[in-house]
User: What shape does this take?
Amino acid sequence: MSEKVKVNVVPHTHWDFEWYFSRYDAMIQFVHNMDEVFKALEDNVLEYYLIDGQMSIIDDYLEMCPEKEPLFKKNIESGKLFVGPWYTQTDELIVSGESIIRNLQLGMKLADKIGGYMNIGYLPDSFGQGQDMPKIYNGLNITRALFWRGLPSRLTNDRFFKWEASDGSIVNVLNINGGYFAGVPLIEDQKQLPEILNTLKGENTSEIVLPLGGDQRYVDFDIKEKLQQANEKFTSYEFVENNYPATFDELEEKNTGLDTLSGEFIDPSVSKIHRSIYSSRYDQKQFNDHLERLIIETLEPLMMMADKNEIPYKHGLIDKIWKIMSRNQAHDSAGGCNSDFTNEDIISRFKEAERLVNSEIDYLTRKMSISMDGSIENDLFVYNPQSYPIKKITEMEISTKFSDFKITDIDNKLVQFQSISKEKIYSGQVKRDTSEYEDDKYYYLNKVLVEVKVPAFSYVKYQISKSNDSLETSFGMDNVIENDKFKFEVNSNGSVTITNKLNNQKFDNALYFEDTGDEGDTYDYSPAYKNNIYSLNLENSVFKTVTGILENKMIINGEWNLPKDLKSRAANNCDTSIKYKLTVILKKNSNLIEFDLQINNTVKDHRLRVILNSAIENNYSYADTPFGFIKRKVIDENIADWKKLNYKEEPSSIYPMIHFVNAHNNKSSYTVYSKGVKEYEFVGSKFQSIALTLYRSVGFLGRPDLIRRPGVASGNQFKYIETPDSQLLRKLKFNFAIDLTKTSFDANKTVKEFHDYSIYLPHYQVQGLNKFTNILEYFVMNKLPRPINNFDYFNTKNINVEISTTQKLDNGVLVRLVNYSNEMVEGGKINSVSDLKVSYTDFNGDNKKKTSTGKEITVGNFNPGEIKTLVIEEN
Assistant: This one.
């Protein structure tokens, strides 16, 4: 008689804290649901129970029911109840690596307070698995992971395998091939069990894992009875209650010689992956990207600088901000596949986070500036919160009593700047009759570009004073701008030609736009059944050029005639227009051509993309991931027969990015950078052009029978949920740039170039004219008891890899260094004017591996994709 196959039944609930319902709907349901969970555990109706691996719902619950905390602790510590390790179940493909780490850290921290977390990377529903997850998990001492979506059967026929990242990090993975709801038929219809068990059974794995749960699923009080029935009916199986940690223990003990896989898993052959969700609700993705960069690159290191000067670091504030961000980065929330009222909550949370971030930056820059040793009226301070020197042309506002002014440095040398605009503003009490305003109470609000060079973790001080000379900025209406590296020309037919003056290479048809009908939903782009595609250029536009000492720019205003909806598109009736304003910027000494695009969207159910000609014949694309970059085929090998192969959706070559996508060969490299656009595709006869999806407009959460995704609707299969706000009928802004000056691709230098392009340098002018430079300016403020005169700290100007984060810990400063390259890199040196103690740790800054001391610390070689976390203390 053959041995029975063990079926590990894992009771759980997958509790989306928001989706097509609001966070508050789910919160009320969860509060009452937990009463049943605790009763089932207390009465031994359940042996074990998993609360979805995320702490945000428990955080909300304990805020309303704090008296229940002892029950959590009792059941967790007894090994019956499992929580964490996540704060929310993150998206893995379009949020930053640091965001993913903070999400886990928040979840672990909260779970530890109530008994501990399940030490498994549990993401049962994320829309694809990012290639960097094993190194993120290992950095936080996690060696096991579980997921459902994205794994193609051609890679392995087993459900238990090893997943390896580029740096050698490995996690043992359990793939719940049938989904986290696969076990529901055990309760509701056991006739389906043989087919389900066959799907879940791996080729080599000796046991089967059957997740018994579902979306917002209640407790199954009859589980023991149903298990008994299944054991009586299906005698070749042994159904037992279990939990994931114990199941992993058994699988690891019984299974050796596991398959080892690497890379990302975003294949739709077995499950929907929503390959084009990266462009749904662009407004939210742009907001998230902006705040991620502002928190990580500016706020956190600025707070560290302030702490060094006796302005205490507010760890609670940072935790609060990251909680808000983590809620918005949960897989549904980040995807934008929600009801309109849920998306309103998401935007509201982003606004809350933005206000907290900006207010703290404003407070710190003002407090430090007025407390500087020798600070006087009209001093202008510019801060660099990075650990390496920065030279950058940055925009700022300056208030002056005089119309013309000059900026000088501490050596009284003139500082180059360029005027953008000047506005005369009254500073006295407002009156209904403006003729009563007093002449001596006016001042000038100037927007200017200033070329600054700021040392690492420090500041520069400038002085603003009256000048008798006015700035010279030339204006024109030309269709050409250029600098020492590029010439950008709009031809008479509306096409664009870019010339790289360094090698005289011309890029014809270098930039245009493409508009197509979108009869998809908030999960997926899908072309309209009756579609017309429009190629849009800059013909009949109005040009304005600005020429200055720091930048030249071309402002292009125009409009595109397009169908207003799918009905008009089917008839090829262009019955509305989209007005646009495209600003092309060429800065002094910059390798980038920068683009700022503003449009007023008036069209429903469509997708707008910008097409950029790399002039390189491409077989592969290269895009950044949370902690690396990935090489992808420009066309999926099964694109022609995906329906025959029963794929769940078309394997379109639409891919995610964090901040850049690159094309290169052995002669040249072409990189597109973006602040918020997360989706690209290579198009053209030789895949020579890069299409960035700017945005999609759609009116339903889910639709059935899409061209790209046949079958039932995603989201809710039983109701059309309209999402008129997801049509994005409003003004939208986009920022992207291209670099076509390189002859080869270097991932670390590419990431560094994006940071230099995107980083914000906070600044503050000591002045009494304008009380509304920011909201906090209205509040009175004391200087620090002792003048600030010390910003000496370490610098990483001689580091050859990239800095992912700099943040204050209780025991020093945590710095994370990342080798984005797939090759070994010599890491370089950290330098300081004083002796440092540098410890190599896990991602939390704990578990010190080795320590070095001195004024110059060599960080050693970095393996391909390796991350090193350092804690730096001053000796």
